[in-house]
Design goal:
heterodimer; A: mainly beta; seven-stranded mixed β-sheet; 0% helix; globular; B: mainly beta; six-stranded mixed β-sheet; four-stranded antiparallel β-sheet
Amino acid sequence: DTAVSQTPKYLVTQMGNDKSIKCEQNLGHDTMYWYKQDSKKFLKIMFSYNNKELIINETVPNRFSPKSPDKAHLNLHINSLELGDSAVYFCASSQDTPIPSEAFFGQGTRLTVV
Amino acid sequence: AQKVTQAQTEISVVEKEDVTLDCVYETRDTTYYLFWYKQPPSGELVFLIRRNSFDEQNEISGRYSWNFQKSTSSFNFTITASQVVDSAVYFCALSEGAYNFNKFYFGSGTKLNVKP
């Protein structure tokens, strides 16, 4: 059973296109995240949602729009893709109450914009 | 300022050597959590350990051990008798605040190469 699953695993698309990455967690966690890992392996938080509410938005371009239909899902939609958006995107979840847990990560989605 | 610093970008060792990966963090909070993650070549992020700021006891799990020193704001990770399968990028992370643990700050990672 996959705890945090994201699809697709690989995504190759042309500049200017709009694409979505889906994420689902079956751990019952109340917080979900999107992280971006660049070519130098640096992991940077993009968004965090707690019980479907946005709580962290790290100055990400508004071409990126997360959507959380329920607390088990956090999808990432990207408009007008640019070359610089090429990276690996990780979805994660954690439980913040009663004691903060570690973040559980999905397998990652390697996005290549050509 | 970087909240989590992993000064070693890349380390190469020969199998069976011991290796220590350094992690230095910065926070003003008294309540915080520290983590280590492993990212093997396959790309997934694997959780290794979580420590809270009130527990400075060192931890050992098989060949892995962690040394948490609040006095030097360090949370170092040692692999004893390294194996080729330990080759990966290792990330140290910090989550801080009594009511705001929703943000994990990651270090830049240390790539460990274990050669046979």
